[in-house]
Amino acid sequence: EVQKLNQQLEEKNGEIQQMINQPPYEKEREILRLQKSLAEREKAQATSDVLCRSLTDETHQLQRKLASTAEMCQHLAKCLEEKQRKEKGNSDDQIPTERSNQVLLLLLYNETSLQALICNLQDENRMLKEKVAHV
């Protein structure tokens, strides 16, 4: 293992000597190439950071919207059940009517569609992160 490391060290020293022995214009050209490459990578990273932040913010916003929609639907369903109980004078074990079932179905549909949207955004976010890693 020591011999292998020594060999790698010699190779690196050879590369360094090659760079030192290059004419100044070739060194400058290499430096410019590396600087350009670095600038491109930094720009790509900044762009992906902005996109990731944007997607994260949108995901959080959708999650808050989903929570408030679910809360509102639950509240409406309770109000509807209470109203129906008062109107009919029945006990608490009354079977929910079709109207309250429709409200509950609407709640489930809204929650499902928002969750699907969140999943899509998370997938897109993951793909963008993979592209950034690839770049």
What does this structure look like?
The chain is an all-alpha fold and 135 residues long. 90% of the residues lie in helices and 0% in strands. It has three helices and no strands. Helix 2 (24-88) packs antiparallel against helix 3 (98-134). The two termini are 33 Å apart.
Would you summarize the structure shown here?
This protein has 135 residues and is mainly alpha-helical. Helix content is 90%, strand content 0%. The chain has helices spanning 2-21, 24-88, 98-134.
Break the fold down into its secondary structure elements and pairings.
Layout: H1 2-21, H2 24-88, H3 98-134
Please tell me what the overall shape is.
rod-shaped
Query: What order do the helices and strands follow?
Result: HHH
Number of β-strand runs: 0
What is the helix tally? Answer: 3
The helical percent reads over 70%
Strand content: under 5%
Rounded radius of gyration (Å): 31 Å
Largest sheet: none
Residue windows where pLDDT falls under 50 for at least 5 positions: none
The end-to-end span amounts to 33 Å
Averaged pLDDT:
81
Oligomer: single chain
Counting helices, strands and paired strands, the structural category is mainly alpha
When the domains are counted, the total is 2
